[in-house]
Amino acid sequence: MGAGHHDRGSRLSRTHQVPRPLRHMQQLDAVRAIAVFAVFLEHLLPNEAVIRHVLPWGPMGVRCFFVLSGFLITGILLNCRDAVDTGQVGRGKMLYRFYARRCLRIFPPYYLVVAAMCLISPTIREYGWWFVAYLQNFLFWHEDKMMVSAHLWSLAVEEQFYLMWPFVVLFTPSRLLLPVIISTVFIGPIFRWIGVYVLDWSVMSTAVLPFAALDSLGMGSLLAWISVARASCPELIDQLTRRLLFPACS
After folding, report:
1. N or C: fewer beta carbons within 10 Å in the chain?
2. To the nearest 10°, the Cα dihedral for 117, 122, 125, 130?
3. Relative orientation angle of helices 57-85 and 91-120, to the nearest 10 degrees
4. C-alpha dihedral sign at 28, 34, 37, 38
5. What CA–CA distance (Å, rounded) separates 127 from 185?
6. From the CB of residue 235, how many other CB atoms can be counted at a distance below 10 Å?
7. What phi and psi values does residue 74 have, to the nearest 5 degrees?
8. What is the pLDDT of residue 18?
9. What's the pLDDT tens digit per position in 132-169?
10. Spatial CA neighbour of 101 closest among 86, 79, 122
11. Alpha helix positions (H), 89-233
12. What is the pTM of this model?
């Protein structure tokens, strides 16, 4: 009996350790490659190229990146939440660790690019603080002339998502977390519709704002939640999937 309890305790301690990085998922590399290829097509091909009119390559590639970001970040945060819920670490300390790791990973290459752009372009140098504060998407929304550097707007959207989403995942009650994630999927198209048809903003200027991307980020987050839930309770997820997709057979 003592040995059995010891084995179970060892397994539990290994299961609920302070969050570790997610394992590398090779299948996501193919998705990244497709997204990069789509964005390159949008920026490199001339407007008269036939292939440009087959699909909305640029928006499709960016949306793909948003789904990936939502999936990966939410997977990390669900891992963090598990550590918090099992008493391994407090929420405040977990938030500090999360933001510290994001800053060390993202800030050095990003600010190196921003510094180079400021040296090369007087226009970007004039608006440099927007880029330093990761608010360039709001600048693009307000100043159409700045769209020359619009390839950085998606980075600002992701950083704004990273700033807000940890509080949602770590502080939302467990029973409400799935409804909250699902609700974000609906916020994106509703916000875009209001921006274009009610506020009379252009499609592009609306798309660069953070709420306009929440459907893609939310879909990635939902996939992460399903992935974690399926690993911990596969029977429940299978039953839920069958009822949603094949209600007549339930």
Report:
1. N
2. -90
3. 150
4. negative
5. 32
6. 8
7. -70, -35
8. 39
9. 999 989 988 887 656 556 678 899 999 999 999 999 99
10. 79
11. 91-120, 122-126, 128-132, 136-142, 153-171, 174-193, 203-207, 214-232
12. 0.79
